Amino acid sequence: MTTLSPDEAKRAAAAEAIKLVRPGMKLGLGTGSTARHFVDLLGGLVAAGLDVLCVPTSEETRAQAAALGVALTTIDAEPELDLTVDGADEFDDSLRLVKGGGGALLREKIVATASKTMVVIADVSKHVEIMGKFPLPVEVTRFGLEATRRLIRARAEEAGCAGEIVLRDKGPGQPFITDNGNFILDCHFGALPRPEQLAQDLSAIPGVVEHGLFIGLAKAVICAGPGGIEIFGRLEAQAPP
């Protein structure tokens, strides 16, 4: 049995996902180390003549895709997409996801929701039985940060969660700023026993812009590991008109 490194597994999952792409598709391009492999492979197909139009979910992904010659647009110009391929920080058997480790959760969720099909690519380490192993990112406004953090803690406790809620930084004394100009609070809960309730309650907090729980969005997860490719859900990418 061939043992894949985590990076090789990510690329193997991306290579499986690239098979879903058809000429003329409008694609959402995810953000993060696994999605980066997909964009690299897509760039190779575009160089060979593939015609697609893509919406990136971050400025980082935009720069990568543009450098590869991939045709780009915005979600305002193309509000309905055929397929989005993105990574995840973790997923469970119900295709519930935690995303936002790369800080692009708001744009990722907007693009995923605008897509007929969202497919996640991941290595086997991202598969969990109980969600919450990875800290849950919550994008919040700068105004009212502490008031928002207090409400997040209270709502989380009602959903059975407890743990440290940390302002993400990019260096000592330098908070991480999203592409949308907001902060991110990373919630180290360890376990999310009632993720649906938590997602609903977080969305109701005024200072919360978006949270990293993606529930009911992914149609399938392509997971690569030592045993090869495993598909969770169903791969049914929509054909372009």
UniProtKB/TrEMBL annotation:
EC annotation from Swiss-Prot or TrEMBL: 5.3.1.6
Binding of substrate, residues: 31-34, 86-89, 99-102, 126
Catalytic reaction equation(s): aldehydo-D-ribose 5-phosphate = D-ribulose 5-phosphate
Gene Ontology molecular function: ribose-5-phosphate isomerase activity
GO terms under biological process: pentose-phosphate shunt, non-oxidative branch
Active site (catalytic residues): 108
UniProt keyword list: Isomerase
Pfam families: Rib_5-P_isom_A
The protein's annotated pathway: Carbohydrate degradation; pentose phosphate pathway; D-ribose 5-phosphate from D-ribulose 5-phosphate (non-oxidative stage): step 1/1
Protein family per UniProt: Belongs to the ribose 5-phosphate isomerase family.
Subunit description: Homodimer.
Function per UniProt: Catalyzes the reversible conversion of ribose-5-phosphate to ribulose 5-phosphate.
Protein name: Ribose-5-phosphate isomerase A
Native organism: Methylocella silvestris (strain DSM 15510 / CIP 108128 / LMG 27833 / NCIMB 13906 / BL2)
Phylogenetic classification of the source organism: Bacteria, Pseudomonadati, Pseudomonadota, Alphaproteobacteria, Hyphomicrobiales
